[in-house]
Design brief:
Length: 514
């Protein structure tokens, strides 16, 4: 039963919150459950975690300890960590770390962002608690960061969200580093938005929310309302995207021969003997150009910098940047999308065996200086700058995702249900579970699948995305006279590529069939 539950949910983390009073005689059973769950998770899903919440004690009492002590340590000892309740005092992280010994980082001191009796007050002073936790070498468990949204913090959600997480970064710094391995792909999607695009083509034009669609996020610094930055950088959900529902927008002004850089990723990517390819999509206006500035460390710990420049004006680019970078590389291929030629795809390659990619920055610059008529023929005025970064892809080998043909997949339908719709006479509603798998082999290297539907002769309509090889369709409207419904499963690669819809696996259901 336990293995079935774990394999069906694929959840990598379980938090056990037993906020009840128990008969002390039941405690051995509870400990056996926690131990068995932890061991089963580790064997079924390596890297998974089971976290105990600081609630019921070994005596069966519902008594929040707000620290790790002898009342809750027996549970801590048989799982991967403890989420300590929020109402701790200043010395409790240090006391808990002492009790945990060499497992001090498995102690997660709770912080309630709403500020309900939490140390430091939460909200805009959440960093007060974080500073204490960091000083005493414990981990932190931040509860309800959705406070920013739920409390409608001004001036708007995105600005307030960036400001709040900026406090976390100021306190703890940047902990994660990526990219660390290849392939690496990010379309900067945050798992919500107002539209969804697929390689520059809009496939959804309504607001949506699906946290499983979140991509690697850029390390954009929050500068508040400061006007000292010539270029404002933000993850944007309103502008048309290249892939998913987000992008990075760069808006401002640049002076003559000026440039601006913004950190995108801080990594630890060890380069091998094969060339590494970079592909990124950009939409810009006027003379605005956007390149990628890469920072490397060499086997001898020397620092090297490489500019992957945009395609315009090679001579000007070399003149402006050759003295600032170890090397300047012009793209080996530039292409535009048929459906939206404003999107320009830049492809570049580097060959630096033994080096480590430490940082990826966006470099904003212009293709030519602009003369100002107001200040004489030789005077140059700042120019407006606007560019949108759609996605970044880093990989080795050829960029040709090997997708199995449609007939390599077995697609089935389960729990088919037809019901009468109230929207139009004779129309029906379809509910069904779609499941698919490769005919040969139990595993596949694909990260996600996009699901489309076409009703009769209608064009394909995007339904959603699946991370597992199954998808539930609920109450799909089917007009009267529609003979069949076709579901297409579009396979997506880890490097951002997608299979063509016409080559993707599908299943066709006749209306009324069960």
């Amino acid at each position: 039963m336990m293995s079935t539950l774990i394999n069906s949910t694929c959840s990598l983390c379980w938090q056990l919150n037993m906020e009840v009073t128990l008969d002390p005689k039941q405690i051995p059973n509870l400990k056996e459950f926690v131990s068995h769950l932890t061991q089963t998770m580790h064997s079924s899903l390596p890297g998974s975690l089971v976290i105990w919440y600081d609630s019921v004690t070994v005596d069966g009492a519902l008594s929040w300890q707000n620290q790790l002590n002898d009342q809750n340590k027996p549970f801590f000892d048989i799982c991967d960590g403890i989420f300590v309740n929020y109402t701790w005092e200043e010395d409790f992280p240090k006391l808990s770390a002492d009790v945990a010994g060499d497992r001090k980082f498995d102690v997660y001191m709770g912080i309630d962002v709403f500020g309900r009796n939490t140390y430091g007050g939460g909200q805009w002073t959440t960093n007060v608690a974080l500073d204490v936790i960091k000083k005493d070498d414990c981990s932190a468990a931040i509860f309800a960061p959705g406070w920013v949204y739920e409390n409608k913090e001004p001036p708007n959600f995105q600005t307030a969200q960036n400001r709040w997480w900026g406090l976390v970064e100021q306190s703890w710094g940047t902990v994660q580093k990526y990219p660390r391995k290849l392939p690496f792909y990010s379309n900067f999607d945050q798992g919500h938005g107002y539209h969804i695009y697929n390689e520059g083509k809009q496939i959804l034009d309504t607001p949506w929310d699906n946290i499983s669609s979140q991509s690697f996020q850029p390390f954009i610094k929050y500068h508040g309302d400061s006007t000292t930055q010539p270029i404002q950088v933000s993850v944007n959900f309103k502008e048309a995207s290249y892939s998913g529902g987000g992008n990075i927008t760069f808006v401002g002004t640049l002076g003559v021969d000026a440039d601006f850089t913004a950190t995108l990723f801080v990594g630890e990517l060890h380069l091998g003997n094969s060339p590494v390819h970079f592909t990124y999509s950009v939409k810009s206006s006027g003379d605005s150009l956007l390149g990628l500035a890469l920072q490397f460390s060499s086997p001898t710990r020397d620092k090297r910098s490489v500019l992957l420049a945009a395609s315009e004006n090679t001579l000007l680019t070399m003149t402006q940047f050759s003295s600032h970078f170890t090397s300047v590389i012009m793209p080996r291929r530039v292409s535009k999308l048929d459906q939206d030629p404003a999107w320009v795809i830049h492809e570049s390659s580097i060959d630096m065996p033994g080096h480590i990619l430490k940082e990826i920055r966006a470099l904003c610059y212009t293709s030519k200086p602009i003369k100002s008529a107001d200040h004489g023929p030789h005077s140059l005025a700042p120019s407006n700058y606007y560019a949108v970064l759609g996605d970044i892809k880093i990989f080795t080998g050829e960029d040709n995702s090997k997708f199995p043909p449609a007939n390599a997949w077995l697609v089935n339908s389960e729990f088919i249900s037809w019901s009468t719709s109230n929207t139009a006479q004779g129309s029906k509603k379809l509910s069904v579970k779609l499941v698919w798998q490769l005919k040969v082999g139990n595993a596949d290297p694909f990260d996600q699948y996009k699901i489309y539907v076409s009703r009769g002769k209608s064009s394909s309509e995007y339904l959603g995305v699946a991370l597992l090889k199954s998808f539930y369709v609920s109450d799909l409207e089917v007009d009267s006279g529609t003979p069949s419904v076709k579901f297409v499963i579009q396979v997506c690669g880890s490097e951002g590529g997608v299979q063509k819809l016409e080559d993707s696996p599908f299943i066709q259901l006749q209306v009324g069939d069960s």
